[in-house]
Amino acid sequence: MESPFPSYQTSPWPYLLTSPALFSNQLIPENHVHWSETPESHIYSVDLPGVRKEEIKVEVEDSIYLIIRTEAVDESTKPAMSFMRKFRLPGRIDIDGISAGYEDGVLTVTVPRSFRRSGFYIDPADVPERLEVLARAA
Predict the structure, then answer these.
(1) Spatial separation of the C-alpha atoms in residues 51 and 103, rounded to whole Å
(2) How crowded is residue 109: how many other Cβ atoms within 10 Å of its Cβ?
(3) Residues 58, 64, 69, CA angle at the centre, nearest 5°?
(4) Which of 20-29, 61-70, 101-110 has the lowest mean pLDDT?
(5) Residue 124 and which of 57, 69, 98, 114 are 20 to 30 A apart at CA?
(6) Please, how many CA atoms are within 13 Å of residue 77, restricted to the half-sphere of its CB?
(7) Alpha carbon distance, N-terminus to C-terminus of the chain
(8) What's the DSSP call for residue 13?
(9) What is the per-residue DSSP string for 62-107?
(10) Distance from chain centroid for Cα 11
(11) Per-residue pLDDT averaged across 108-130, rounded?
């Protein structure tokens, strides 16, 4: 009897594991997080239809990660959908200025950029009147 699979593939598993009939929605993420940036901020948008505002939790972990998730309000209920995403925050952001809004099933998290210059400041009063040259450039 001849195998229905090509000679280089003797196992039916690759066909079965990629079949949409078996795994119609497990392999495709239900929620897509859209990230965009403007000169002033980074914007994360998440579609969370059917989720109540009280079930959404947005937090910053170690000033490095933005975590967006759903969790039950109390132990007797569970959220309309289970969702959790963790993003590494870009550098030079204002963590205290992060804001979130939830309207019509869409969560929008705005992470403002920080325009503060990080560096050192030399007070002119601390500079001596006469500077000594310690090395010359070649």
Answers:
(1) 11
(2) 21
(3) 25
(4) 20-29
(5) 114
(6) 12
(7) 83
(8) H
(9) TTTEEEEEE--SSTT---SS--EEEEEPPSSB-GGG-EEEEETTEE
(10) 38
(11) 75
Distances in Å between the Cα of 26 and the Cα atoms of 23, 71, 106, 122 are: 6, 20, 22, 58
Percent of the chain residues topping a pLDDT of 70: 67
Residue pLDDT, tens place only, 48-81: 888 888 889 999 998 889 999 988 887 777 777 7
Exposed / middle / buried, residue 55 (Cβ in 10 Å: 0-12, 13-18, 19+): buried
Q: Which amino acid is at 56?
A: I
CB 46 within 8 A of CB 55: no
pTM: 0.61
